[in-house]
Amino acid sequence: MERLYTAVARLEKELAISAILLQDIASRFQEAMNEGLTGGSGSLRMLPSFIGSPTGQEQGQVIAVDFGGTNVRVLLVELAGTGRSRIVARRAFPLKDKLGHYDYTAVSASGPALFDFIAGKISEIVPAGGIYPLGHTFSFPCRQQGGDQAVLISWTKEIKTAGVEGRDVGQMLQAALENRGLDRVRLQAVINDTTGTLLTAAYSDPATTIGAICGTGHNSCYLESCHPLTNRPMIVNMESGNFDGVQQTKYDILLDQASEKPGAQRLEKMVSGQYLGELVRIIISSLTAAGHIASGSESLSVPYSLPTEDISAILGDTSPGLEAVAVVAARWGITQLKVCEYKAIQTISRLVAMRSAWLVAATWAGVLTKIDPGLVRQHTIAVDGALYEKMPGYSEQLANTMMEMFGDKAKQITIRLSKDGSGIGAAIAAATVYKGKYCNER
Ligand code: BGC
Fold first, then answer.
1. pLDDT of 439 above 70
2. In the predicted model, what is the mean pLDDT of residues 418-433?
3. CA nearest 420: which of 381, 382, 380?
4. 70 pLDDT exceeds 90?
5. Are 89 and 125 within 8 A, CB to CB?
6. Ligand 1 centre from 15 Cα, in Å?
7. How remote is the CA of residue 63 from the centroid of ligand 1, in Å?
8. Does 385 contact ligand 1 (Cβ within 6 A)?
9. Nearest-atom index, ligand 1, CA of 242
10. Does 194 sit in the ligand 1 pocket, CB within 6 Å?
11. Which residues pair with residue 142 across a beta bridge?
């Protein structure tokens, strides 16, 4: 047991982020932001969205598409014009059929077929008659030249559909709608999900300056008060999952080297739901290989066999005998451990999850120090995603880290959930562009 304690203590040292390191990461993040904004070749792309803040008065019925991964949603959203919104109709559907009837995410699928599939779902919720603005949340890195033009730089999150990278996804969706005779549905804006999250919160809370996703993927955007391209306020999609200013541990390096795109999305691989379970698996495998934890099973050697939901279940276990940890470990093929071994598994899971929160908070601290060095204004950070919403202790750790970094001034910062922000935000984005004309004119 002595050796297990020593091994866990060593891991604590490797994975913990000290107060000094937090400040250092925040400064490096700020430097990378400045470099990205001036067109440098750093790890932050700082993609302009051409969308500013909403007034809260945008109103009418708007179609929203929320395409963030293999599950897509189309919504008919009613914006009340008083900072409130309501979903009138919705369809949620996978791009990959469980029974294998279709898969629009594979390299064998084509872009036009993918967008025709989505246009078909839109046709099911558009009311008869009237013109409907459309906002499209597309949560992949895109280069934008205007609010409604977005060229996909590269797929992330394991999607491989052919003929979309390098193409304008807004145009592809509009063309698919027109082919189906739906030209009264008019694409106004293509946005990232972080932008949608920011917009949804900002619709009723003008202090919102950062939007973020802490879910399967990770990314943040912020409101640049005077963007050099337009000399007006503009939301900037930082693609912060690609930030490379954090020292990797040997476990991060192993995960990165074995991933689809080694070297890419380095922060995302340390903090997002897609990877936390895998990091825990790599660490526990190293402990079983060294004989610190008894395991008679091969299951732990299968990459991505530990879902991040299991990490949530482990962190939520407060029972003295760690029964829930034992249930999860049995699913991984390790049974009959001593309580101290279950405790080690819980400690490792907590370290990996809390490191994620520390790192994300440090990047937000970098943004806040850039846009408001003395922290004299109120700032709301709007967040969506399962890690933030469901991982025990995660949201508290984000808030505590802000306290640690800003002391008393952290009172100016509110971090809050922006539920369904990416879908409703697409509708708000479309409405901000469409303003001037009343939505749904006939
Ligand atoms: C994508 C981002 C997106 C994030 C959260 C990342 O993999 O590159 O564009 O905002 O996931 O969905």
1. no
2. 94
3. 382
4. no
5. yes
6. 24
7. 22
8. no
9. 8
10. yes
11. 152
157 CB within 6 A, ligand 1: yes
Mutate to test the pocket of ligand 1, among 140, 158, 238 (most ligand atoms within 8 A of CB): 140
Residue having the nearest C-alpha atom to atom 12 of ligand 1: 217
- How many Å lie between the centroid of ligand 1 and the Cα of residue 343? 33
Measured CA to CA in angstroms, residue 17 lies from 170, 264, 332 at distances of 41, 22, 28
Query: What is the rounded distance in angstroms from the CA atom of residue 325 to the CA atom of residue 318?
Result: 10
Radius of gyration of the chain (CA): 22
pLDDT reading at 78 higher than 60: yes
SS3 per residue for 91-122: EEEECECCCCCCECCCCCCEHHHHHHHHHHHH
Contact yes or no for 426/191 (Cβ under 8 A): yes
Closest atom of ligand 1 to 193 CA is 10
Q: How many helices (H) does the chain have, and how many strands (E)?
A: 14, 13
Q: What six digits make up the tokens of 431?
A: 């409405």
Give 141-192 pLDDT, tens digit per residue. Answer: 999 989 999 999 999 877 899 999 999 999 999 999 999 999 999 999 999 9
Element (H, E) at 269: helix 266-271
HSE value, Cβ hemisphere, 13 Å, CA-based, for 240? 36
CA-to-CA distance for 402 and 53, rounded, in angstroms?
24
Average pLDDT, the chain: 94
Query: In Å, how far are 55, 203, 365, 431, 441 from 436, measured between CA atoms?
Result: 13, 17, 37, 9, 12
Q: Mean pLDDT over residues 131-143, rounded?
A: 95
pTM of the predicted structure, to 2 decimals: 0.94
